[in-house]
Amino acid sequence: MNTKKEQESGILRDTIASLQNTLGDQLDAMEIERIVIGIFFTGVKLNNGHGGLCFTPIKTIPEAVCCPSSAKAMPNSGKIKGTKVTKILDNMFYGNAMKRSIGIAVMNALSNTVWAMRGQNGHVIQKGADPLDDYVFPEGGKAVVVGALVPYLRMLKNQNRDFCILEKDVSTLKPDELPRHVPEERAHEKVAEADLLIITGTTLLNDTLEGLLDAAKPGADIFVVGPTASMLPGAFFDRGVTSIGGVTVTKPDLLLDILAEAGSGYHFFGKSADKVVIARP
After folding, report:
1. CA 47 to the chain's CA centroid
2. Distance from CA of residue 165 to its chain's centroid?
3. What angle do CA 275, 219, 124 make, to 5 degrees?
């Protein structure tokens, strides 16, 4: 019987199984060649040349306030380079959010590996695009944005849409956005009413994505966005996601150099990584 934790992280576990089935014995030879844990994103380059990204969950690690306590959060610093990807994947569910972040970055690098080997692998992958490009908002519809996703909040405000925001850290919201903020205890109620759901991929880090998808009403348009969700999409589609707005790493070493200098998406989009939309055929 699956534990509650295993059910919550089902998308990640199902995606790992898909990567293992696709890559087979090749996984045994893959390891981390380089890793950078930046302020905004964690990035890895594998020894096969492919890279992957994940959000760096600094705020979820209460220990990370001074050197002695931070050492507990990252006990393997200086020893991650050369680690087998199979070990990273095996251990990513047992520990803190930083370990999960590294695991997701590896999953995204492995997904890039699959796409390089097999093309789009039966999915539609569009570079330089956003999942809400040309989106037609349903007349009288309601939207929920999960996360302080600035471009989408701006879009909905400019279009004068009916929307609310789910975000744990209200300090990330602008004054005119605060009235739209919904407390956590009302999250599923609002999600169940939404015709459009825009969900940050960082929900994969705290195991809240599955609950949000379960609460969504049938027929809702659901987009999971951000570099963290840049992986094989089958498990997302199986749970009702319309499409993923992710990132594909094009120049891993350049990207990691940027992350090492506290870079964010503004610094690497179009230079060492491209926005992509991953959709159903």
Report:
1. 22
2. 18
3. 30
Q: Cα(144)–Cα(216) distance, rounded to whole angstroms?
A: 10
In angstroms, the CA 9 to CA 183 distance is 23
CA angle 241, 242, 244 (to 5 degrees): 80
Query: Please, how many CA atoms are within 13 Å of residue 138, restricted to the half-sphere of its CB?
Result: 12
> Is the Cβ–Cβ distance between 102 and 80 less than 8 Å?
yes
What is the full per-residue pLDDT of the chain (281 aa) written as tens digits? 455 555 568 999 999 999 999 999 999 999 999 999 999 999 999 999 999 999 999 877 655 555 555 555 565 777 899 999 999 999 999 878 899 999 999 999 999 999 998 876 778 899 999 999 989 998 899 999 999 999 999 999 999 999 999 999 999 999 999 999 999 999 999 999 999 999 999 999 999 999 999 999 999 999 999 999 999 999 999 999 999 999 999 999 999 999 999 999 888 998 999 999 999 87
pTM of the model: 0.92
- Mode of pairing for the β-strands spanning 32-37 and 41-46: antiparallel
Q: Which residues pair with 34 in a beta bridge?
A: 45
Structure tokens at 94: 């047992």
Query: What's the CATH code, domain 125-247?
Result: 3.40.50.11590
Where do the H-state alpha helices sit in the chain? Answer: 4-8, 10-23, 67-73, 85-91, 97-118, 150-158, 187-193, 209-215, 234-238, 252-260, 265-268
The strand pair at 124-127 and 273-279 is best described as antiparallel
Cβ of 188: how many Cβ atoms within 10 Å?
Answer: 15
Asked whether the beta carbons of 85 and 32 are under 8 A apart, the reply is yes
Instruction: Specify the CATH architecture of the domain 4-122+250-273.
Output: 2-Layer Sandwich (3.30)
